[in-house]
Amino acid sequence: MNKLATSIFAVAMAATSLPAFAADFNLSYASPYTETHPYGAADAEWMARIEQQSNGRVAFTPYWGRTLVTSREGVDELAAGVADSAYIAPIYARSGYDMNRLVPGMFYGYTDAEKVLKVYMDLWEEFPVFAEELKGIHVVGYNVGTPMHLLLREAPVTTLDDLKGLRIRSAVDFIGPLSAFGAEGVTMPMTETYPALEKGVVDGVIAPYEALKSLSFAEVVKYYSELPHSRGAYPSRAVNQAVWDTLPDDIRKIFDDNAEWLSLRTLELAQKAEMDGKAYGEDLGVQFNSVDGAVVAEYSASFAPAIKTVAEGLDAMGKPGSEVLTKIRAAYEE
C-alpha cells in the first residue's frame, strides 16, 4: 500500500471510530420517573432529538427514577445545580410558585387535554409572572394531565345523587365538590389506595384510565364512571439557569423550538398509556359508563367558588389570579 493509500485508509478508519462532532455541552438530565414511564419515554426521544438537531454538540447523561431529583422538590433541586436539566413539577410543591402551583386548578371542566395545553402555553407567554416565579431555571417543556374519573367498587355513578355517602380517595382540590354532593373526599397516598379499595375502606378513587393497569386498580374496582376531573397544565422540563446562560444562542433556540414538540409528545404517550389502561380494565371486566353532559356541567360548576377564592388570593399577592382565571374560563366557553 503506497503512502497516499495508507493515509486515506487511516483517515477513513478514524472517521468510523470517532463521532462526527465531540459534544461541546455534556448535560445531565434527572427525572423522578423511569425511562419506561410515558414521561421518561418522551424525555428519551427529546434528548435524542436535541442531540441530533445540534449535530452532536449537545449530549445528555440521564439519571432516572429519583436518583437525583424528586417530584416535590424538583424545582429547588434543579435551581441548586443537582442536575443540569430535569423533569420538574411545581404543582406538587408544598408552597411557593403560587401561579404555577394553583392555576392548573382553574381548568376545571375541560376535557380536551390538547386545548388545555394550548391555553396554558399562551398564558405562559402572556404573563411573565409564571417564569419569574421559577428563578434559577429556564423552562423547556410542559405537561398536561388527561382527565381523571371515578373508579368505584360497588356501583357506577350516573347522577350526582349517586355520590351521596361514598368515601372517595381524592386530591385536595376535589374534596370540596365531592362534599357538595354528599360524598367524603379522603386523602391518602396512591400507594395505599389499592389495599383501601380491596378492604372497602374507601368506595372509590379519582384516577385516570392508566391507573387501572399501572396501579392494578382494575383488580379491586368494578366500575369506571366518566365524570371528568381536569388536571390542568404545568411547566415540566427545565434547564438550570446558570447552565442555560453558558449555552450559545443557536443551542438555546433548539431547546426552545422543541418545547411544544416535547409537550405534545408527552401528551401523546400519556394518552397511549390511558388507552392501554382502559383495555386492561375491559379485559378484567371493569364496566365503563359515560355521564350525561348536564350532570358533568353541574358538577364542574361546583368548583367555581373555591377557585374564585384561589384567584382572589393570588390577586392579594399582587399576581394576576383573577385575570388569568377569566381568560381560562372564556377559552372554556369557546
In short:
The protein has a domain at 148-230 and 275-333: D-Maltodextrin-Binding Protein, domain 2. The chain contains 15 helices and eleven strands. The protein has helices at 3-17, 38-53, 74-79, 98-102, 113-126, 129-133, 175-180, 193-199, 211-214, 241-246, 249-257, 259-283, 293-301, 304-316, 321-333, and strands spanning 25-30, 58-63, 85-87, 137-144, 148-152, 167-169, 184-186, 204-207, 223-229, 233-240, 287-290.
CATH H-level superfamily of the domain at 148-230 and 275-333? Bacterial extracellular solute-binding protein, family 7
Rounded to the nearest angstrom, the radius of gyration is 23 Å
Could you please say which CATH topology of the domain at 148-230 and 275-333 applies here? D-Maltodextrin-Binding Protein, domain 2
Main sheet attributes: strand count, strand direction, barrel closure: 6 strands, mixed
Helix content: 40-55%
Q: What is the number of E strands?
A: 11
Shape: globular
Question: At the first level of CATH, what is the class of the domain at 148-230 and 275-333?
Answer: Alpha Beta
Kindly report the average pLDDT value. Answer: 92
What string gives the helices and strands in order? HEHEHEHHHEEEHEHEHEEHHHEHHH
| Straight-line N-to-C gap | 75 Å
Write out the strand line-up for the largest beta sheet, numbering strands in chain order.
Answer: 7-6-8-5-9-11
Low-confidence stretches: 1-20
